[in-house]
Amino acid sequence: MINIGLELRKAINTGKVYFGIEQARKAIEKGEAKLLIVAQNCPDEDLRKKRVDVPVHIYRGNQMELGTTCGKPFGVSVVTIVDPGESRIMALKE
Q1: CATH number, domain at 72?
Q2: pLDDT band at residue 94, thresholds of 50, 70 and 90?
Q3: Minimal CB count within 10 Å: which of 18, 23, 53, 61?
């Protein structure tokens, strides 16, 4: 089992990630998104119900908790992993 907080911070620091629903939608359309990490209270039902063609991991926390885990002073509904960098975050899709 991986430490999602640690691996998410590694992905943010060493890879390429996007924050927010609009960025997630754009990355899905462009075929860039490799994994979505979605807060339990994300307002986008399609993302929360895994109705997209990208692996989705439901984060066990709300938007504020996901934002804090990412080191952001605001809520984050979804984190889109484009490049995992040195992290093992992609293990969440298995």
Answers
A1: 3.30.1330.30
A2: low
A3: 53
Give phi and psi for 59, each to the nearest 5: -70, 135
pLDDT in tens, 19-67: 999 999 999 999 999 999 999 999 999 998 999 999 999 999 999 999 9
The domain total for the chain is 1
Of 73, 30, 36, the closest CA to residue 56 belongs to: 36
Give the phi and the psi of residue 27 in degrees, each rounded to 5: -65, -35
Closest by CA to 93, choosing from 25, 21, 33, 13, is: 33
Taking the model in full, what pTM does it have? Answer: 0.94
